């Protein structure tokens, strides 16, 4: 049976890291020898190298390496130090892992990414693996050495390409032909370089990867090599950001403008370094066509992208536009700006919600906590659950139930894009509550803020600290005391807490803090202070968070953790029926949705909508869920291969079959499975070799299997059949 070989490895500084997380050093005899270093450090290195040149935040590293636990930053520091000891040996010009103060780490050494090649005549290593010589160096194949070399085939045929849903952004410079005729080539070169730099820096902030650019046309991919649940949103924010960044370039020759086209769709991505990556599918063409149609400094998006964005932005519907090479017109939208809707839940799910299904006990608990809070016995409920399980929905439902009761409602929203921005959720709330308009001058904002804060009767100094927090200039009436940064921060937090106290004296307060997993450290600090303080205030504080982020808040009597579990079968059917409305679905289709969506309301909602739209039973995964499902797999890039092979076997896959089919060395396979189980993507029964694994969600299995090329799947299925017969 042929070996399944991870197709990629990274060469740098005399070292080599392969996708399975093994590090080797080039020794004096020209051979690669394994380097002794811990697996956590290797995981960190993998994440950093995968994103060479980009700043990787500490949170990203912590999440990737300790996916299910909350660990202190110091663990990261220790692992980075261990890595530097190994990697920086003999390096003269500083560390190849740069610390970017307050933002994270960046891998800066030149890296060659290459696919493995196979030389049948290659020597055998001490570890029993075949050493393979290629133009780029010496690489081990995972194929056991005792198999006949004639049976080997290049690994690249197995996993060198994947099917992925990608959002592709293509941008170019307006009037570049004219610039080229007007400018000296050297000056033109500088203009283009500055433009490229502005694009790359902007998209790096959204984790987009820049593809192979031609002159001033730059393709950027969102969703590969790492998927995010919000890739379409990232692409659009990046597009708007590129227009802004290029427009601000200070060049003596010209004022530059950009046009941007964005489209989403399934593509085949062939691996290679970012610049050599090939992306084949409709989306790149469509994005390029839309880019050609875009007016200077505008972003045009296609239908597939628009569908994923809901009310996150304001748009202008351009209707059907003629594009070169397309017989039928293509529907396009121009993105005008981010919308003023602060709640991600409202922007994506809309205001017309179907009635709540189930959750009686959970809602009962929230109502009881509210009743206690109203008497001055302040309460905190941490609502925890996986994405789409209904955390925001139940918080919104409580808000609806309290509609007729006199109370003050405060809502705070954390954003994945503002994790480095201190106190962003609080600043944003104050701006909304004050009624800031985008073009308000600072003096008008100061007046509005003062009117808002006066309701809670703040002492003057609080006003100064809060105005400063909102970047408003100090006024003569409220001068800002001259304090150290630390003291200023403390006073600002105290001022914000006093605001809450002032409001709670007037009416009971329902405070909702959404998505704590994306909160910046200072907001978490303030949240902790608030949790402590609400004990003796008429305040109910609801905090929503995903389980992989679990702050330690045990032992506080006012704090309750509410874990939202999956809906039971009866509630699942009820939810399908509610969404289908008058278009009642055949019973077997309802059963299929109920079975495959595993009780996650978001999965049920999107799958039902997809069936209603297409008019056929559920095939594959709905496009609206694709990014979120792939993001779960990509969080664990080093074990995705195992998930993909497992997914090709089925929802359940026995260890022995996986071992036979994948041919990944046993110790590595076991280690990968441990991580997969720890991430809760799969459950385990028994211990290897007798273990059986099952995907927690059928749709995650579909996503894993669906990311394999048809040809790869066929190859794997042939191996599975062969192994089962043996
Ligand atoms: N019990 C329910 N009855 C009806 N619809 C529900 C229920 N729970 C959730 N939903 C719907 O499912 C979708 C996902 O729910 P929601 O956005 O609240 O999930 P979440 O846990 O907040 O996810 P995230 O972690 O991404 O914020 C929403 O459209 C919501 O209205
Ligand atoms: Mg939510």
List the helices and strands and how they pair.
Blueprint: E1 8-12, E2 15-18, E3 23-26, E4 32-34, H1 39-50, H2 58-65, H3 73-87, E5 97-100, E6 104-107, E7 112-115, E8 129-134, E9 137-144, H4 156-159, E10 161-173, H5 176-182, H6 185-204, E11 209-210, E12 218-222, H7 231-247, E13 258-270, E14 278-281, H8 282-293, E15 298-302, H9 303-309, E16 313-321, E17 330-338, H10 344-349, H11 360-374, E18 379-384, H12 391-401, E19 408-413, H13 424-434, H14 442-454, H15 460-469, H16 485-506, E20 509-514, H17 521-533, E21 539-545, E22 559-563, H18 569-580, H19 587-597, H20 601-614, H21 623-634, H22 637-649, E23 652-654, H23 655-662, H24 666-678, E24 682-685, E25 692-695, H25 698-706, H26 710-725
Helix pairs in contact: 1-3, 6-7, 13-14, 15-16, 18-19, 18-20, 19-20, 21-25, 22-23, 22-24, 22-25
The structure holds adenosine-5'-triphosphate and magnesium ion (MG).
Residues 345, 349, 353-354, 356-359, 385, 387-393, 544, 546, 575, 601-602, 605 line the site of adenosine-5'-triphosphate (ATP).
């Amino acid at each position: 049976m042929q070996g399944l070989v991870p197709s990629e490895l990274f060469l740098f500084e005399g070292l080599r890291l392969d996708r399975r997380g093994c590090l080797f050093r080039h020794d004096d005899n020209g051979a690669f020898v394994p380097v002794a270093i811990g697996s956590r450090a290797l995981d960190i290195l993998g994440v950093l190298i995968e994103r060479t040149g980009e700043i990787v935040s500490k949170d990203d590293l912590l999440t990737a390496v300790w996916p299910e636990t909350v660990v202190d930053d110091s663990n990261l520091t220790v692992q980075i130090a261990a890595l530097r000891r190994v990697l920086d040996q003999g390096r003269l010009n500083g560390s190849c892992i740069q610390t970017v103060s307050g933002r994270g780490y960046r891998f800066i050494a030149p890296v060659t990414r290459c696919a493995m090649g196979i030389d049948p005549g290659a020597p055998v290593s001490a570890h029993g693996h075949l050493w393979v010589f290629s133009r780029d160096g010496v690489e081990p194949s995972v194929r056991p050495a005792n198999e006949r070399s004639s049976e080997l085939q290049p690994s690249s045929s197995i996993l060198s390409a994947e099917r992925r849903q990608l959002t592709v952004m293509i941008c170019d410079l307006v009037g570049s032909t004219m610039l080229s005729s007007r400018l000296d080539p050297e000056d033109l070169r500088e203009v283009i370089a500055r433009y490229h730099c502005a694009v790359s820096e902007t998209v790096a902030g959204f984790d987009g990867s820049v593809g192979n650019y031609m002159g001033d046309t730059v393709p950027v991919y969102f969703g590969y090599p790492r998927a995010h649940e919000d890739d379409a949103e990232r692409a659009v924010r990046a597009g708007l950001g590129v227009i802004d960044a290029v427009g601000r370039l200070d060049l003596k020759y010209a004022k530059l403008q950009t046009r941007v086209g964005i489209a989403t769709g399934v593509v085949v991505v062939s691996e290679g370094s970012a610049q050599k990556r090939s992306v084949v599918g409709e989306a790149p063409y469509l994005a390029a066509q839309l880019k050609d149609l875009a007016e200077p400094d505008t972003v045009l998006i296609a239908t597939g992208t628009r569908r994923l964005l809901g009310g996150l932005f304001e748009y202008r519907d351009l209707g059907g536009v003629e594009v070169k090479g397309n017989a039928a017109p293509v529907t396009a939208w121009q993105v005008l700006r981010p919308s003023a809707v602060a709640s991600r839940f409202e922007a994506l799910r809309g205001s017309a919600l179907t009635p709540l299904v189930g959750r009686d006990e959970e809602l009962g608990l929230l109502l009881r906590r509210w009743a206690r809070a109203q008497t001055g016995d302040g309460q905190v409920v941490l609502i925890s659950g996986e994405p789409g399980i209904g955390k925001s929905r139940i918080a919104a439902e409580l808000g609806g139930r309290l509609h007729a009761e006199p109370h003050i409602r405060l809502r705070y929203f954390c954003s994945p894009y503002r994790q480095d921005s201190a106190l962003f959720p609080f600043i944003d709330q104050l701006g909304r509550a004050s009624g800031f308009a985008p073009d308000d001058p600072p003096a008008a904002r100061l007046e509005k803020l003062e009117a808002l804060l006066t309701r809670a009767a703040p002492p003057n100094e609080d006003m100064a600290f809060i105005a400063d927090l909102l970047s408003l200039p100090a006024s003569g009436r409220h001068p800002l005391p001259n304090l150290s940064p630390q003291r200023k921060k403390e006073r600002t937090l105290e001022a914000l807490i006093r605001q809450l106290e002032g409001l709670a004296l007037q009416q009971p307060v329902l405070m909702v803090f959404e998505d704590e997993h994306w909160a910046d450290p200072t907001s978490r600090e303030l949240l902790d202070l608030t949790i402590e303080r609400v004990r003796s205030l008429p305040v109910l504080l609801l905090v929503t968070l995903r389980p992989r982020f679990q702050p330690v808040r045990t032992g506080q009597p006012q704090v309750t953790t509410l874990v939202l579990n999956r809906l039971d079968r009866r509630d699942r059917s009820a939810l399908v029926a509610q969404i289908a409305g008058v278009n009642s679905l055949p019973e077997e289709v309802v059963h299929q949705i109920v079975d495959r969506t595993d009780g996650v309301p978001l999965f049920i909602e999107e799958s039902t909508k997809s069936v209603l739209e297409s008019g056929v039973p559920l095939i594959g995964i709905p496009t609206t869920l694709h990014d979120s499902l792939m993001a779960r797999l990509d969080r664990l890039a080093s074990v995705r291969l195992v998930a993909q092979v497992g997914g090709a076997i089925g929802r359940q896959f026995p260890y022995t079959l996986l071992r036979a089919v994948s041919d990944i060395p046993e110790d590595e396979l076991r280690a990968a499975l441990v991580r997969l189980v720890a991430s809760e993507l799969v459950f385990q029964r028994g211990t290897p070799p007798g273990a059986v694994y099952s995907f927690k969600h059928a749709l995650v299995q579909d996503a894993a299997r669906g990311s394999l090329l048809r040809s790869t799947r066929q190859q794997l299925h042939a191996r599975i059949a062969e192994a089962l017969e043996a």
